[in-house]
Design brief:
globular; mainly beta; 303 residues
């Protein structure tokens, strides 16, 4: 199974590719930068692709690698080398979401930052720690501050004055020494290039319905062969199917003929869904060529 990487047509031409008439999918180990000639291109996904400024304050915390905040979020096992970065006291990183993958100012919360300590998306790693979040469309700023979160938290571009943001600055704001905030990843809910929106967006258990539909937007040339829900959890409640990220949870869906809508059985969905606002749902899409992409949305469940 290959991780999804998509090279836009314009990028292919600039890189000197012979055939720039069709998009190209290539196999990459994760969502980090893909090197072509002297230029860098990034996977089409809702995750951070590259670190553009490393301000980690390495105080011997054991996991100071800034790349720990990149790519697909994986299950955090404290017994293993954690896929996180401990930025250190007052330390920071600036990440690039990728060209054509900017966070968009859309309805509701636009993205989420996962802080490994105390997060129910990465439980068992310690107490939640605070971090400050700011955004920009330039790697050197100026950055617009969105606020401080303790543990994993949601962010909205609504009052930032920005319609989109490509770069995210994450800085420790009072974490424990020596590691500071332990940052696991950035997930965009409203993202350029790919998109997922469920209908209905608020599900009422008392209203009988047969289906929940995920409306998807993927790059041209990504023909969906199969789809499944791999995550349903809320930040304020334990996941009903731990470990929550890319675990054994798999609710199959049926893609439409045009590949723009994936239909899921509502009963199976509600068996796994928690009550409350801001329920995080992730689906895994696999193409006919065995490429894989993950998309996220926020919905609400009501009794």
């Amino acid at each position: 199974m290959k991780r999804l990487a998509f090279i836009p047509l314009a990028a292919m031409a600039l890189a000197g590719c012979q055939d720039a008439t069709q998009p190209v999918w290539v196999d990459t180990p994760h969502a980090a930068a893909l090197q072509l000639s002297s230029m860098a291109y990034f996977a089409v996904d809702p995750f951070a692709d590259a670190v553009v400024e490393n301000g980690v304050n390495d105080q011997g915390q054991g996991f100071p690698d800034p790349d720990g905040v990149l790519g697909n979020l994986e299950v955090l096992d404290p017994a293993k080398s954690p896929p996180v970065v401990g930025v250190g006291v007052n330390g920071f990183v600036v990440v690039d979401m990728g060209f054509g993958e900017e966070i968009l100012d859309g309805p509701g919360n636009d993205f989420m930052v996962v802080e490994a300590d105390g997060s129910l998306l990465a439980a068992g790693f310690g107490a939640a720690e605070p971090f400050a979040v700011s955004v920009s469309n330039s790697p050197t700023g100026p950055f617009v501050t969105l606020g401080t979160r303790t543990g994993s938290g949601f962010l909205d571009l609504k009052n930032s004055g920005l319609k989109q943001a490509r770069y995210v600055r994450l800085q420790d704001a009072g974490g424990f020494s020596p590691s500071g905030a332990d940052l696991q990843g950035v997930v965009a809910f409203n993202v350029a290039g790919v998109d997922l929106k469920f209908t209905p967006h608020t599900i009422n258990r008392r209203r009988k319905a047969e289906h929940v539909r995920g409306h998807v937007r993927v790059p041209r040339g990504f023909d969906i062969a199969s789809a499944s829900i791999v995550l349903i959890t809320a930040l304020d409640e334990p996941s009903p199917t731990p470990p929550p990220y890319f675990s054994t949870l798999s609710i199959p869906g049926t893609p439409s003929v045009n590949g723009r809508v994936v239909t899921f059985d509502q009963a199976a969905f509600l068996d796994e869904a928690t009550d409350g606002t801001n329920v995080i749902v992730a689906i895994e899409l696999t193409s006919v060529s065995d490429e894989v992409v993950y998309l996220f949305d926020l919905i609400s469940i009501r009794n």
